[in-house]
Amino acid sequence: KRKHELESSEAQREQVRERIHVALTIAEENLQKALHNLSLNLVIEAMDTLKKIDFMALKQDIQIFENYEDGFRSILFDKTGIHAQKEQLDSNIHKATTDIEQLRNDINQLEVSIRNEQEELEEVNNMITRVEKDLSKNENEKAWIDKHIQTIERQIVEDTKQKTHLENEIQKIIQNINELSKEIEQWQNSLVEFNEKSNELKQQIHELIAKRDEIDKRIIGRKQSSKKDMEQLQKLADRISALDKNIVEFQFRLNSIEEYLWTEYETRIADAKIQVDESMYESINNELQSIKQQIQELGPINNLAIEEYKDLKKRFEYYIEQKKDIEKAREDILSVIADINKQSVDLFLQTFKEIQKNFQEIFKQLFNGGEAIIELTDPENILESGIEIIVRPPGKKNKNINMLSGGERSMIAIALLFATYMVKASPFCFLDEIDAALDEENIGRFIRLVQKFSKSTQFIIVTHNKKTMSVCDSIFGVTMEEPGVSKVLSVKLETAYAMTK
Question: How distant, in Å, are the alpha carbons of 61, 71, 95, 100, 335 from that of 76?
Fold first, then answer.
């Protein structure tokens, strides 16, 4: 029976040893493959194989083996045991002990190798995890970039459409301005020509009036002189007529005398040698000569003076009509200018009210409260009036902008600029160190305002502030690598951020 137990124990010990040997052999082969190939899949496979090895079962087998060894030892020193089997058992025990030690060493080495492989596997797993994270991150970044690119492309399309629309609107406005400018210039030129022509006509009219007055004076003088001459001529004619009557009377009397002499004395005056009073004839002759002399002194009579007066009068009336036409045209031009000025005043007041409202809103945004007013310095002369800005920052009294700090004045200028942009935005806006006097908090407010308006306007900002630069799409810097030689550098921040990631 004892022999049967020993044989059974030996058989079980051999089975345990065989199982341990097979498990260690498989694990060692997989471990060698993993070490030689350094392939991630083989390492994982080897680790899976090692995980499949039941080390607790091996330890239990070793414990059973040791129990068997103790059984062998008890049998060996059992008094009732067979001494003949002692040497064989000793040999078996020694061999089993050696095998156990070898197995323990192999197991220890295998455990060390397994720990190393586990560490390597853990490192590989960590690497895989990092790679997967990086891959996931890159995929997320790629998805974000693709989405951002699509957004930018849509924005570019919208901006292009808006730019085209704005360019068309600007072109129309420029065309209208050019047409109005040409029309105003034409009216102004016409007005200048009319004024020049009016001045010339006025000068001609003054000259003609002077000539007319002179001619009138001459005509009046001539009329007066002619009247005097006519009166004198009439007197002379009356005298001549009287003299003619006297001559007729004297001739009649002479004929009567001759008839009487012939009737009574049958003689004639010549025959009678009657002495005639020659003093009477001399007096009459002298009077005739005097009248003829006076007529000669009157000179030749200008029979065309009346015609010349009529011609001058017609020309004068024509120039008067021309003057009336010019004055009417001048009044029409002044009326058109007045209408344009009225429309300009209406448009200016409408725009000014909108700017006032926008200025108050933006001022409150930039100063986080307060009040702001824009007033005209000359409401009676709107088109030539200046503006006055009165503000009340939060916690302060009403002040003129000249009494504020540099930063506050810069913020007010920014508010006025963007209040105007809210009425009519410009495609481009150039700002030269507008943030130089601003502190960090106000720079943040300024940046948010610029970002809000950047959807419709492209801002070009000259700045030395890093916070302002951080929100720009592109940065352009000017350096001087060599004396007298400037170099322009440009950076797109979006590309730079992508490269840093």
Answer: 22, 8, 15, 19, 143
